[in-house]
Specification:
By secondary structure, the chain is α/β, with parallel strands linked by helices. It contains 12 helices and 12 strands. The protein has an 8-stranded mixed beta sheet, sandwiched between helices. A 4-stranded antiparallel beta sheet has the order 2-1-4-5. Strand 7 (177-181), helix 6 and strand 8 (209-213) form a beta-alpha-beta unit. Helix 3 packs parallel to helix 5 and helix 4 packs across helix 5 (159-171). The radius of gyration is 21 Å and the shape is globular. Mean pLDDT is 92; it is low at 1-5.
């Protein structure tokens, strides 16, 4: 770390009105991320959930400038990263890393595991060969693999082992912030908990901050301090872990939470599942007003005309819904 922790702001990341659009034709623009505002506190894990295609991965990649934002600002340690270039951009890239969803496609099949892990070291540090080898061996040990894995290739490893290599590669440059982009979705169920527990252990050891992107609501509840819910490019709810799962306020969040299976057969048989009607609209042609309006049974004229802004309706509980207080009082 180039600065003392005491001198750094409480929020490691501040995202304001972030937009990322993709031009798909001369007349069509896909609004993958549309005016997202959130903060990530130093040392926490912020979970980001939503249906496939909601923009959560694009949001995470834009935060670390794998994609350049269309508009809006992303501040890392108080500095707007959109204006960075040269050495300052390189320093930011060192401090903000990513663990990709597919642990095979993200590893170069022509490189040994040792070369993959040390690739970032070659860019950011002036290590001798011995220092680099020692660092690779130490990282393999940290992620639960033997040192001889350094001489193997990605195709010789299982999915869980490959994802551990992805984690070691992210740690190799001593980052402060890591985007975990659905790091367990491609793994066997028996391996998923092992990888998540490894991430928790490494977070404590290295004092890391995570953005944990997933559609697995149960796993997000296990690892996250706060959780954000995205729908069609918009952030619709953001709250602490317990608050969001116990008292969701947005109709979409309520439907997601109701779909989480429980281990209690009696409770599972009696609980009410909220089923959403209709299909997710296209992000190329989203509906006017609230993005969720076509699937929400509580929608009113205001919802069809005015896009709700995310606002704090309870302490540390933010919701983008015109009627959330009214609906809570009715329930």
């Amino acid at each position: 770390m180039s600065e003392k922790t005491a001198q750094l702001p409480e929020n490691i990341l501040e995202v304001t009105d972030l937009c990322k659009y993709f031009r798909v034709s001369r007349k069509a623009t896909l609004k993958a991320v549309d005016h997202v505002t959130l903060t990530i506190r130093r040392g926490e894990t912020l979970g980001l959930v939503g249906e496939s295609g909601c923009g959560k991965t694009t949001c995470g990649r834009t935060m670390i400038r794998l994609y350049n934002p269309t508009s809006g600002t992303v501040k890392f340690n108080g500095v707007d990263i959109s204006s960075l270039s040269g050495k300052r951009l390189l320093e930011f890239k060192k401090n903000a890393q990513i663990i990709f969803q597919d642990p095979y496609a993200s590893l170069d099949p022509r490189m040994t595991i040792g070369e993959i892990i040390s690739e970032g070291m070659n860019v950011h540090f002036n290590y001798s060969d011995k220092e680099k080898t020692d660092r690779v061996n130490d990282l393999l040990n940290k992620v639960g693999l033997a040192q001889d894995y350094a001489n193997r290739f990605a195709h010789e490893l299982s999915g869980g082992q490959r994802q551990r290599i992805g984690i070691a590669r992210a740690l190799a440059v001593d980052p402060q912030f890591i985007v975990c982009d659905e790091p367990i979705s491609a793994l066997d169920v028996s391996i998923q908990a092992q990888v998540v527990n490894l991430l928790i252990k490494l977070q404590r050891e290295f004092k890391l901050t995570y953005l944990f992107i997933s559609h697995d609501l149960s796993m997000v509840k296990h690892i996250s301090d706060r959780v954000g819910v995205m729908y069609l490019g918009n952030l619709v709810e953001l709250a602490t872990n317990l608050e969001l799962y116990d008292r969701p306020l947005h109709p979409y969040t309520k439907a997601l939470i109701s779909a989480i299976p429980t281990a209690d057969p009696d409770g599972e048989a009696t609980r009410q599942r909220i089923k959403l009607e209709g299909e997710v609209p296209s992000p190329i042609n989203p509906p006017e007003g609230c993005r969720f309006v076509q699937r929400c049974k509580y929608a009113c004229d205001r919802c069809r005309q005015e896009t709700p802004k995310i606002r704090e309706v309870k302490p540390n509980h933010f919701v983008a819904c015109h009627r959330c207080e009214e609906l809570e009082n009715e329930s």
